[in-house]
Each structure stands twice: as C-alpha cells, then as structure tokens.
Amino acid sequence: MSDYSPVESNAWVPETAGNTTAWRSLVDNDAILYASAGCCHVAAYGLYAMSGEVSYRICYFALPSNHDDLDWRVDFAYQQSGLTSSVRFTLADASSTDTATATVTAASGADSVTIRPVNTTASTTPRYGYLDVTATAGESITLSYLYVSVVPAVARTGVLASGYISVGAQWYTASAPIPSEIIQTLQNNPTKIANDRPQAVYSAVQLLKADARGIFSTNSTTLTEVLRLVLPSLDHAKTYRLWCYVERTLTAKADVVVFIGSKLVTLLNDEGIMQATFTAGAFDLNSTSPTGNSVKIRVASGSGYVGLSTLQILEEPG
Amino acid sequence: MGLRAPIPIPLIPEALAAFIDPIKSAPWFPGVAEAKQHALATSGRGVGIGAGVYLTDGNAATFSVPVPPGVVYMQVRLMMSGVGSISVDSTNNGTAKTLGTELQGMDAASAAVLMQTSTLPGDMKTSPLKVRGSSAWTWTTETVTVTFTSSSTGDTGMIYGIAFDPVWEPQST
C-alpha cells in the first residue's frame, strides 16, 4: 500500500465525477490512513535495570481503546552483560491476559516485542501492559527508552468495532455514483480512527522498586512534590485520562494530586492503578506557566512508602 | 504540485456527519471528508508529547519521539533546575541544540524553570530540532538524545521533563 498523499486543496469543484483523480485519492487515502495512522501511548526514558535469573517486573502502562484489536508494540533499547535475556510483554484487562516475549542476544541494541490482543477485550476503561525482564544467572540487563504504540494494519472488511467502515475501489470506477452514504462514511472514518487510537500527551514511566523507594516516592503524610510536567501545546478542548501506577510497601495507600494549568486532578487513597478523567481546553492547560504543572503525592492511609512509577495523560475518546 | 497546509480540525471528541437523503450534491461534501483526512494526518490529531525524566548531572537520555506526517522540525521544551548545560540532538539535526541555565541555590523541583527552542526553522539562535531529513507524508519516529552536563561548581541541577511539539508547516503535495 502506498503512502498517504493529500490532494490539491483546490481539487473540489462542482460536478466532480465518480472517476476523477481527486475522488479516487479520497477513497484510497481513507484506506491508507487506517493502515498507517500512528499512535503513541508511551515515549519514556528511565534506566530499567535488573540482574539475575528471576523474572523481574519493571513497569506498568495504560493501553487505551484499540477496539479493532490491532497489534501493540513495545520498542526498547537495552544493554546486557550476558548472552541472552528476555523481555516479556503482558497485556491485561480485568480478567484476561495476552503475552509475547522478545529474546535479545546482542550486548546492546534496540529491539521490540509485539502483542496481538486475543484474550483481552477493549472497553472504556483502558487495558494495561507490563514488562517482565529475565537475565541469565549472575548477569544483568538494562533497558533505557520505551516506546509503546499501536501498529496500524490494513482494515478488515465490514463494520469494525471502532466504527470504521472500508470504502472499496468500486466507488471510483467509471460512471460510478457518489452516494451520500459513502460521503458520510468517508467523513466519519477519520474520526473513528482517531478515537480508536488515542495518543498520550504525556508519559513518565519509572522502574518499579520492591521497596517502593523509586525516585517519585515518599513516606510522608504531607503532600510532597515529586515531578513537574512539561506538556506539549494542546489546542483543542477535549477530555483526557490521567492514568497512574502507584507502588507501595506495607499497608500504605496514596493520594496523588496533579496540577495542570488551571486544572486540579486528584486520585485519592488507593494503590496500584489509579485513574480519572478531566476535561480541559487550551486556555485551561496554558493558563499558567508550565512550571506550575506539578505532581504531588503523600501517604493517605496505612503505613509505609508510596511511589509513583507511571503517569500517563491520554486523550480520552468520546 | 502545490503546498498543503496542516488542518487543525479536532477529531476527538467525535463530531459525526449524518446525511439524510435525498440531499442535493455539493462539491464541499467530498471536500469536508478530505479535510478531515488531512486533519487526521496533520494538526487535527498530531499532538506533541511530553516525557517525564529524572536526569542528573553527566547523564544522557535517549527518546524515541513520534513524528507525524509533514513535520520536519519539532520545538523542544524542557524543565530543569540548578546549574547546567543541555545538549539536544537527533539523527537528522546536524548541530545539537544547546540550552542551559544557572540558577544557583535553586536546585529543586519547586524551582524548576522552562527552557525551549523557538518554533522558527532557520532561527539563528534557538531554532527547533530537525527530526526528519525532508518532508514526507508518513508517520515515523526519531531518536533524540538529551545530554546533561552540569557545572563543576554550584548546584548540580536536574532535568524533570521534556516535551516535543511538532512545528506545522505547509508541505508539497
């Protein structure tokens, strides 16, 4: 399949026929965009290091939407002291999992692991993923960057779970009509694609620690600032999902308080996956200096440490 | 071949078209569909991304950054505290961008400041980061390396986050 190629902006004139180049491009581009529109959920850096033969879970992250069950891929860079290590990617929903494993054999480099969702099911609550790393006895491996994305593919036929409907080449043959139903489908398909592949506008993923003493952690019951957020410019009003993974020791539960522009988002008295949605416009997000965007955590109840290991801000479909 | 500007039609939340037949044909019907397609490929959906890091003196971080169609440059914004010099480079940049600050005695998240490149390709001082050799209508990723070198004196500094914003320019069709 060729790449997306926009038509000239003055292509649309009265009496556009069903076999004109512009109409043909419109129909072709619809399929090309489904098969190529990228989508990133995590672009993070951290030193995800472990050693030994025992499988070690290094991080969690949210994987939203994807009702069409396209593949998810985790790209990573690594360095290892031994000859062989493995990186296992698990995709989970409330009750089921899918797994895939990549085995790396070079001293360093970049690799990836890809999952096709089979057992898990998309819903309005994001699925989530986690990585388990195993090195050989006495050796170590360190992952550096993580890049988690949907892998676009050619659309299946029929009405897909995302609502996307393919428009075939029969609609640009000579003397073919341009029915309003096809126009409607072509107008709606870009929206269906975008909503099934929501993107992250922010991601921070740090190594899980057995003692919950990662770099964004505390045992204080007073709100402690652990992170400042740098967001890209966001122009449109929309709803976002704040997704966190909070680790802990003993019985501690956390409050996570996030200030973004004029918005205050609170996740209260919990641990593990904590999430909430909030709606914001460009004015809300840009109403203060980015230096005012901060993340604070504290121990809300129980005793021990709480640590913020993952924070993602994702577009929320709707 | 002409130039095609990005189209910032928001695609989330959904605003769906619904035709009720019979409806009189009009040339802007396919034009609207095409505009939404171009929005999906460009600024209607091509948001940038922010990455949280905790990068200390003498360390380098490598990111894989999503680059939408038609984008050749990205503005880089980062948050840091303390004293230090930051080099930001990509595989297509040629010359690394250098940013830095000297905030003695203010080495904490609560005292972090924002530094950024401009959004003007060709700017002689702080031009945006080049993330693609030349324009193409494809989705890709670019490897960006951020190297933090702190001053030998004073507060050693810290980088707390970095954001990459596409610089949207008209490109050839």
Q: How are the SSEs ordered, and which strands pair?
A:
The complex is a heterodimer of chains A (318) and B (173).
Chain A: H1 21-36, E1 40-51, E2 56-63, E3 71-80, E4 85-92, E5 97-104, E6 108-115, E7 127-135, E8 140-151, H2 180-196, E9 200-205, E10 217-218, E11 224-228, E12 238-248, E13 253-260, E14 263-270, E15 272-280, H3 282-286, E16 294-301, E17 306-315
Antiparallel strand pairs in A: 1-8, 2-7, 3-6, 3-8, 4-5, 4-7, 9-17, 10-17, 11-16, 12-15, 12-17, 13-14, 13-16
Helix pairs in contact in A: 1-2
Chain B: E1 3-4, H1 28-41, E2 49-56, E3 60-67, E4 73-81, E5 83-90, E6 97-102, E7 113-116, E8 129-130, E9 140-150, E10 158-167, E11 171-172
Antiparallel strand pairs in B: 1-11, 2-10, 3-9, 4-7, 4-8, 4-10, 5-6, 5-9
CATH architecture title of the largest domain in chain A: Sandwich
Strand content of chain B: 35-45%
Rg of chain B, alpha carbons: 20 Å
Sheet having the most strands of chain B: 5 strands, antiparallel
CATH superfamily of the largest domain in chain B: Galactose-binding domain-like
How many E-type strands of chain A?
Answer: 17
The span between the termini of chain A is: 30 Å
What gap, in angstroms, lies between the N and C termini of chain B?
6 Å
Low-pLDDT ranges of chain A = none
In total, how many domains does the architecture of chain A comprise?
A: 3
Describe the structure.
The complex is a heterodimer of chains A (318) and B (173). Chain A has helices at residues 21-36, 180-196, 282-286, and strands at 40-51, 56-63, 71-80, 85-92, 97-104, 108-115, 127-135, 140-151, 200-205, 217-218, 224-228, 238-248, 253-260, 263-270, 272-280, 294-301, 306-315. With 318 residues, chain A is mainly β. Chain A folds into 3 domains: 21-36 and 153-196, no CATH class; 40-151, Sandwich (Jelly Rolls), CATH 2.60.120; 201-315, Jelly Rolls. In chain A, the strands form 4 sheets. In chain A, strands 9, 10, 12, 15 and 17 form a 5-stranded antiparallel beta sheet that branches. A 4-stranded antiparallel beta sheet of chain A has the order 1-8-3-6, with no helix packed on it. Chain A has a 4-stranded antiparallel beta sheet with strand order 2-7-4-5, with no helix packed on it. In chain A, α1 (21-36) runs parallel beside α2. With 173 residues, chain B is mainly beta. Chain B has 2 domains: 3-41, no CATH class; 49-172, Sandwich (Jelly Rolls). Chain B has one helix at 28-41, and strands spanning 3-4, 49-56, 60-67, 73-81, 83-90, 97-102, 113-116, 129-130, 140-150, 158-167, 171-172. In chain B, the strands form 3 sheets. In chain B, strands 2, 4, 7, 8 and 10 form a 5-stranded antiparallel beta sheet that branches. A 4-stranded antiparallel beta sheet of chain B has the order 3-9-5-6, with no helix packed on it. In chain B, strands 1-11 form a two-stranded antiparallel ribbon. The longest helix of chain B is centred in the N-terminal third of the chain and has 14 residues, at 28-41. Chain B starts with a strand and ends with a strand. The mean pLDDT of chain B is 86. Chains A and B meet through α1, β1, β8, α2 and β9 of A and α1, β2, β3, β4 and β10 of B. β9 (200-205) of chain A pairs parallel with β2 of chain B.
